[in-house]
């Protein structure tokens, strides 16, 4: 079934509420490059923190890494990206627009109907140069995947952490691809973030761990609130596998623009370690105590896109409801992901004692997560604003609060309100967030 959420409405909400903006908008923008606003950065950070907690903190067999974006140019020869990381592109002879051949339904320009050129291979990597002496610079690439930073550090991490197989290395960071297809907000961006694990196993155990990671990653999205019916697994056909992969499953999400890849889980075999060992001349092996032999481990790679996951969480949580004959737009985000956990309002902003108490309550709650104080509209408007960004709790200080020292706490999903002593508010909210 199609996802009924209107992508245009999500995009407009993103702009209106400071979630996602087009990059360099005042100059007319840059295609397929995006900025995250004050609410978007909280949401994206929460997605990354949830992933990091699940794998680097909750498991003892995975270590974290933050490798650099620029790497030795030979990295990309070894990985195969210089020769294989390309799309077949065609240009329109009339309007000069460029398209991916595999995405065209007919052999004419989809924009103006003009004739198309023969297809040419177009490498997706961004090239820049490195060096401080004019004329002596070297070409270097912005990484198109974070994975290679993990492979080239394999021995460093093995030697410093003393891990035994199976073990993983996890990394979150920016990647860059000179993508041609635009549209659908952040779905296919030229600058984006990946969250990748390279999980090293003995060659005999690759299938077991491959199956484990496919299920684990699917469950991760479900546990963070994505509806099961909006997720599906799709196994790659042999002819669509990346040059390094023996097998690959995509986790697809039912986006309003159709089922599309959220994450790929691939069996990369020992391809990358062997390639880097060959090109660099450094041994990249693991000493197996059981057999007294060096082995080159196989790698199972769950590779997710932070921006795609963030977009899927946004779309899946988008709800329109009728409340007292008015439309309520609410993002029913999982509590771990909600950008703002609590918003505090004074019921009357012309009563200094109420304003002062509300500000004190907000300050008291602040520190561990994003808390907002707002007095720039009526209570109804303030609730609506917070619902639209998925704020979990709205706290109101009113006249009665001055006497009984209690505040009203409204729950985002049920809209139920209860009164809680201001002194106990922080511990009560923290308890609800941890439940
Ligand atoms: N290391 C393996 C790898 O990079 P991939 O399937 O090319 O595999 C993995 O990318 C994930 O990265 C994708 O499933 C997607 O979530 C994200 N991704 C890839 N290209 C992207 C783009 N242009 N914009 C946003 N996310 C992208």
Brief write-up:
With 435 residues, the protein is an alpha+beta fold. It has helices at residues 7-16, 38-57, 74-79, 81-84, 147-152, 154-161, 206-223, 271-280, 306-317, 352-365, 379-388, 399-404, 425-434; strands spanning 20-22, 34-36, 62-65, 86-91, 98-100, 120-123, 127-130, 138-141, 167-176, 191-201, 231-235, 247-255, 258-269, 286-288, 293-295, 298-305, 318-323, 326-331, 342-346, 371-373, 393-397, 406-411, 417-421.
Write a structural description.
By secondary structure, the chain is of the alpha+beta class. 31% of the residues lie in helices and 29% in strands. It has 13 helices and 23 strands. It has helices at 7-16, 38-57, 74-79, 81-84, 147-152, 154-161, 206-223, 271-280, 306-317, 352-365, 379-388, 399-404, 425-434, and strands at 20-22, 34-36, 62-65, 86-91, 98-100, 120-123, 127-130, 138-141, 167-176, 191-201, 231-235, 247-255, 258-269, 286-288, 293-295, 298-305, 318-323, 326-331, 342-346, 371-373, 393-397, 406-411, 417-421. The protein has a seven-stranded mixed β-sheet, with helices on both faces. Helix 2 crosses helix 9 (306-317). The longest helix is centred in the N-terminal third of the chain and has 20 residues, at 38-57. The protein is globular and about 75 Å long. The mean pLDDT is 96. Residues 145, 147, 177, 179, 188-189, 192, 194, 196, 261-264, 301, 303-305, 307-308 line the site of glycyl-adenosine-5'-phosphate.
């Amino acid at each position: 079934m199609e996802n009924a959420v209107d992508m245009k409405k999500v995009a407009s909400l993103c702009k209106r509420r400071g979630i996602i903006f087009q990059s360099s908008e005042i100059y007319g923008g840059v295609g397929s490059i995006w900025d995250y606003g004050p609410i978007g950065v909280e949401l994206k950070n929460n997605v990354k923190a949830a992933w990091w907690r699940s794998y680097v903190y909750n498991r003892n067999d995975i270590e974290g890494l933050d490798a650099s974006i620029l790497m030795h140019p030979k990295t990309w020869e070894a990985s195969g990206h210089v020769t294989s990381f390309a799309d077949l592109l065609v240009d329109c002879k009339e309007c000069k627009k460029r398209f991916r051949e595999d995405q065209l339904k007919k052999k004419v320009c989809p924009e103006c109907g003009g004739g198309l050129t023969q297809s040419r291979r177009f490498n997706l990597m961004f090239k820049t140069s490195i060096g401080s002496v004019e004329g002596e610079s070297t070409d270097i690439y912005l990484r198109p995947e974070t994975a290679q930073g993990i492979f080239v550090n394999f021995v460093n991490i093995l030697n410093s952490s003393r891990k035994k197989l199976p073990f993983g290395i996890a990394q979150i960071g920016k990647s860059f691809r000179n993508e041609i297809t635009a549209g659908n907000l952040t779905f296919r961006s030229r600058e984006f973030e990946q969250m990748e694990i390279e999980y090293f196993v003995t060659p005999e155990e690759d299938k077991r761990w491959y199956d484990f990671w496919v299920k684990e990653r699917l469950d991760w999205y479900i546990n963070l609130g994505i509806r099961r019916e909006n997720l599906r697994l799709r196994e790659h056909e042999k002819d669509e596998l990346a040059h390094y992969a023996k097998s690959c499953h995509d986790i697809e999400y039912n986006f309003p623009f159709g089922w599309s890849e959220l994450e790929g889980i691939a069996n990369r075999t020992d391809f990358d370690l062997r390639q880097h060992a060959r090109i660099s001349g450094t041994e990249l092996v693991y000493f197996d105590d059981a057999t007294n032999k060096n082995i080159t481990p196989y790698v199972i790679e769950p590779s997710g896109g932070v921006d795609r996951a963030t977009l899927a969480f946004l779309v899946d949580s988008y709800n329109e409801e009728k409340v007292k004959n008015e439309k309520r737009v609410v993002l029913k985000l999982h509590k771990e992901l909600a950008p703002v956990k609590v918003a505090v309002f004074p019921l009357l902003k012309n009563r200094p004692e109420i304003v002062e108490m509300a500000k004190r309550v907000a300050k008291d709650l602040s520190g561990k997560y994003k808390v907002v104080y707002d007095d720039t509209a009526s209570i109804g408007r303030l609730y609506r604003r917070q619902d639209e960004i998925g704020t979990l709790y709205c706290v109101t200080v009113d006249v009665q609060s001055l006497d009984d020292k209690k505040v009203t706490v409204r729950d985002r999903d049920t809209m139920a309100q209860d009164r809680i002593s201001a002194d106990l508010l922080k511990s009560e909210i923290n308890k609800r967030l941890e439940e």
